[in-house]
Specification:
The complex is a heterodimer of chains A (278) and B (256).
Chain A: H1 2-7, H2 9-34, H3 38-58, H4 62-84, H5 88-109, H6 117-122, H7 130-149, H8 151-159, H9 161-166, H10 171-193, H11 198-212, H12 216-241, H13 245-267, H14 269-277
Helix pairs in contact in A: 2-7, 2-10, 2-11, 2-12, 3-4, 3-5, 3-10, 3-11, 4-5, 4-10, 7-10, 11-12, 11-13, 12-13, 13-14
Chain B: E1 3-14, E2 17-28, E3 32-36, H1 43-51, E4 58-63, E5 75-78, H2 92-98, H3 113-125, H4 141-154, E6 159-163, H5 171-184, E7 189-193, E8 206-211, E9 213-218, H6 224-231
Parallel strand pairs in B: 3-7, 3-8, 5-6, 6-7
Antiparallel strand pairs in B: 1-2, 1-4, 8-9
Classes of the chains: A mainly alpha (278), B alpha/beta (256).
Chain lengths: 278, 256
């Protein structure tokens, strides 16, 4: 595979996109895990499918449609929840399905069937285009810039929202910004693992990282590195065994997590309880 | 004495449920006020209104002459720690430094040497310096409560508000917290919400009895009539600290 890497640009794209996806994943995945926004992220991801359908329907780049829809969902879900008082789980569940339904509707309305549709659902890292890469670089830069410049504020917000309000932090602005960042991460990940498999890649690396460190910044860094390892290993498996890349990456990450936590439980039953708590 | 908090004709509703009705309360600087009352009596709501955490209310609330949301750097808040946000990966030092953030809320915040000195001396005063690198999840209830107080003090507030700081603590930890507050009261105004009717007696200067309405505000001497009004039934008023007996001996009072 290494030799092919220098020959084929699609492989180079795959490696670059694996790295880019892992960076966003490590940072935002850590926040999602700590703030319990896993359902929210799933909802945003599935709503993005509506955007992909719309993209096909209007003949524009599906990624742009996905970006538009996921940002819209990220901003709308908390708003609707605040206005109607419905529980956020309910709203997210609805958006989850609504997004998929819209996507199916738009695709049904257009003549023919888009051949690369499954790659958005299940990811296909080997078909990432240079346009995708450029979008991913841009979105990654936005995420990095915002989280690193407002790191202390976000740490405070994640730990204790009430206290953040009391000391005068712009809490609702920070939260909305965070939801937009989740939407951007979702869009970055769509090409790599696909809408349906996103959640595992968002949650597995930080869950593993938390076993080894209890420092938020280090969890983010370690998650990003773990993400890179999983994505590149998955890519290698997918390329050499001719299996779908998204599936390979997810199966690798989830089994690694399960095996590692089982291993630690057997080895040091005392220590695992501490790392679980922290 | 200067007014620290001025509340006039305050009404707070959650949807259609009245939480606080026509509250008028003035708290002076240097005061140590204990707010008592039954569950759902609006104690925490009053505290949150002062803190600017209640989105809508009618009436006026002024903290040091300013509306609550503009007075954020003069108020230190100690929330109920039982809320258990303690799985978050963060150590004691980081939590206490959080209090400094209100003075430097800008992008790329870096805590200065001065910030670290301030927080270190506070942690020393509260005897938690040795816990600096300890994860929040590994603290005992009393330790966590002191960390929360340290975080509030790191703001360098003129006013400290605490929501049931001694709930579910053992007697020794309780006493430590109260004597600490007593010490702090020399330099700042303290408002305390509590269920602990008797323990506050030794330290607070004033009490406010709250059950939707403000039934009593003044010296910590309660008679059964007020207690009855607030709690709906006579409450056992036996004080457990022997030398400090806030509450009068029960006497057979013949109502005319």
């Amino acid at each position: 595979m290494l030799k092919d890497l220098f020959h084929y640009s699609f492989l180079q794209h795959a490696v670059i996109s694996a790295i880019l996806a892992s960076i966003a994943c490590g940072i935002i995945g850590t926040i999602i895990l700590e703030k319990k926004l896993i359902m929210m992220s799933g909802g945003i991801a599935h709503t993005a499918f509506g955007g992909i359908g719309l993209g096909y329907f209007l003949g524009i780049e599906p990624m742009i449609g996905a970006l538009f829809f996921s940002i819209l969902a990220a901003l709308a879900i908390p708003q609707i929840q605040a206005k109607t008082g419905t529980s956020s789980e309910v709203i997210m569940g609805m958006f989850w399905s609504l997004g998929m339904a819209l996507g199916i509707l738009f695709i049904a309305l257009m003549p023919g069937y888009p051949p690369d549709l499954p790659s958005y659902l299940f990811g296909d890292i080997l078909t990432v285009t240079s346009f995708d890469i450029r979008v991913m670089v841009l979105l990654n830069l936005i995420i990095l810039a915002i989280i690193s410049s407002l790191y202390q504020q976000y740490k405070t917000l994640l730990f204790d929202e009430e206290f953040a309000t009391v000391i005068g932090l712009p809490v609702s602005l920070l939260k909305n910004l965070l939801f937009v960042l989740i939407a951007l991460t979702v869009v970055i990940l769509i090409r790599v693992v696909g809408i349906i498999l996103i959640i595992a890649l968002l949650t597995v690396p930080p869950s593993i990282a938390k076993i080894f460190t209890s420092n938020l910044k280090k969890i983010m860094l370690l998650s990003s590195c773990l993400g890179i390892v999983f994505c590149l290993l998955g890519l290698w498996c997918s390329y050499s065994l001719q299996i779908p890349s998204g599936a390979a990456i997810i199966i690798l990450s989830v089994t690694s997590y399960l095996m590692l936590s089982l291993f630690l439980k057997i080895k040091k039953p005392g220590k695992i309880s501490i790392s679980k708590e922290s | 004495m200067n007014e620290c908090i001025e509340i006039k004709n305050l009404n707070v509703y959650y949807d259609n449920i009245c939480a606080l009705e026509d509250i008028n309360l003035t708290i002076f600087q240097g005061d140590f006020l204990g707010i008592i009352g039954p569950n759902g009596g609006g104690k925490s709501t009053l505290l949150k209104t002062i803190l600017g955490l209640v989105p809508s209310y009618s009436g006026t609330v002024k903290v040091l002459g300013k509306p609550p949301h503009k007075a954020d750097s003069s108020m230190g808040y100690v929330p109920q720690f039982s809320k258990a946000y303690n799985k978050f990966p963060i150590n004691v030092q980081e939590v206490v430094l959080m209090g400094r953030l209100c003075h430097k809320n800008k992008i790329f915040t870096k805590f200065s040497q001065e910030d670290r000195k301030i927080t270190e001396s506070i942690m020393e005063d509260l005897h938690i310096s040795h816990l600096q690198k300890r994860q929040i999840s590994q603290l005992s209830g009393g330790q966590l409560q002191r960390v929360m107080i340290a975080r509030a003090l790191a703001i360098r507030p003129r006013l400290l508000l605490l929501d049931e700081p001694t709930a579910s603590l053992d007697t020794e930890s309780k006493d430590r917290i109260y004597s600490l507050l007593h010490e702090l009261n020399k330099s700042m105004t303290i408002i305390l919400v509590t269920h602990d009717l008797t323990a506050i007696s030794s330290y607070v200067k004033n009490i406010a009895c709250l059950n939707k309405k403000l039934h009593y505000h003044g010296e910590p001497e309660l008679n059964n009539t007020v207690i009855k009004k607030v709690f709906g039934c006579p409450v056992d008023l036996l004080a457990h600290g022997v030398p400090h007996r806030v509450l009068e001996e029960h006497k057979e009072v013949k109502h005319a």
